[in-house]
Design goal:
Layout (H helix, E strand, L loop, with lengths): L1 H10 L3 E2 L5 E3 L6 E5 L16 E4 L2 E3 L6 E3 L6 E3 L5 E3 L2 E6 L2 E4 L8
Antiparallel strand pairs: 1-5, 2-3, 2-4, 4-9, 5-8, 6-7, 9-10
Length: 108
């Protein structure tokens, strides 16, 4: 998963936050395992049924990986002042494959 995030982002010319990323979902806000935004194919956590993960890519339009954290300890800004995007999907790994839990449902 980390390989795919990094490969797609880099191919499109985006910078990537490698200090922040996804995480496990459970009873606390952020749990193990960590889901980095860049990695090597076949070298990360083996996905297995029962895992629930937050996948959180952070892409920076300027193509650089440089950002700073504001004094509030929460706000991130790109150093080159380019736009950035962060999104999150929650994915459950099931015996039938991954199931994205945060996709909108079709209205009736």
């Amino acid at each position: 998963m980390s390989d795919a995030i990094g490969r797609v982002g880099r191919a499109a010319g985006y910078g990537i936050s490698t200090d922040f990323g996804g995480h496990g979902i459970g009873r606390r806000m952020h749990e193990e395992p960590s889901v980095p935004n860049e990695g090597l194919l076949g070298r990360g956590l083996r996905l297995r049924p029962g895992l629930v993960l937050a996948v959180e890519p952070w892409f920076m339009a300027g193509g650089r990986d440089a950002y700073r954290i504001d004094p509030d300890g929460w706000t991130l800004r790109t150093v080159d002042r380019s736009r950035a995007a962060h999104l999150e999907h929650t994915v459950a790994i099931t015996g039938d494959g991954p199931r994205i839990l945060t996709l909108p449902t079709a209205s009736a």
